[in-house]
Amino acid sequence: LGDSCSSSGYKRNRAITARRQHLKSVMLQIAATEQEKEKSRREAEKQNYLSEHCPPLHIPGSMSEVQELCKQLHAKIDAAEEEKYDMEVRVQKTSKELEDMNQKLFDLRGKFKRPPLRRVRMSADAMLKALLGSKHKVCMDLRANLKQVKKEDTEKVVGDVERRTSSRKFCMEGGKKMI
């Protein structure tokens, strides 16, 4: 019973695979014919465009006719160059106007490009002198204004702090205060 089911499943999968391959080959054939049609259509469009926009070149036999043809071609080239130059000038002018408007927009918004600043070491006296100029008369020596602490005072404060912390620890441990 198990072998018959597995063999019929195998045959079914094989038939499905063969069907898929057949459909794939048919689709590829259709795509190839469509591609050929598209290629021929584009070639016909190209020929129509060239026949409309580029008349066939007829080369005259005499030298004066050739010179006249060259003059006409040069005139067309000059006209095209002038048009190209005019377009470039318009583009430059428009881009300049855009830059100016962007700058005005940034000015109105209040967003300015900050220049990269260098760190300058300057004392407080030098800073006040730079800001106030000759009006600066006060000396701001900050270190001189610091309070002088004697060594005895610091030992006294440290001993007092140690005594307080040790008595708190003693109280927290459940002992009685001894002070």
From TrEMBL:
The keyword Magnesium does not apply. Residues 23-111 form a coiled coil. Keywords: Acetylation, Actin-binding, Coiled coil, Muscle protein. One of its GO terms (molecular function) is actin binding. One of its GO terms (biological process) is positive regulation of DNA-templated transcription. InterPro entries: Troponin (IPR001978), Troponin_I (IPR050875), Troponin_sf (IPR038077). GO terms for cellular component: nucleus; troponin complex. It comes from the Eukaryota. The keyword Coiled coil applies. Troponin I is the inhibitory subunit of troponin, the thin filament regulatory complex which confers calcium-sensitivity to striated muscle actomyosin ATPase activity. Belongs to the troponin I family. PANTHER family: TROPONIN I, TROPONIN I, FAST SKELETAL MUSCLE. Binds to actin and tropomyosin. This is Troponin I, fast skeletal muscle. It comes from Pan troglodytes (Chimpanzee). The gene is TNNI2.
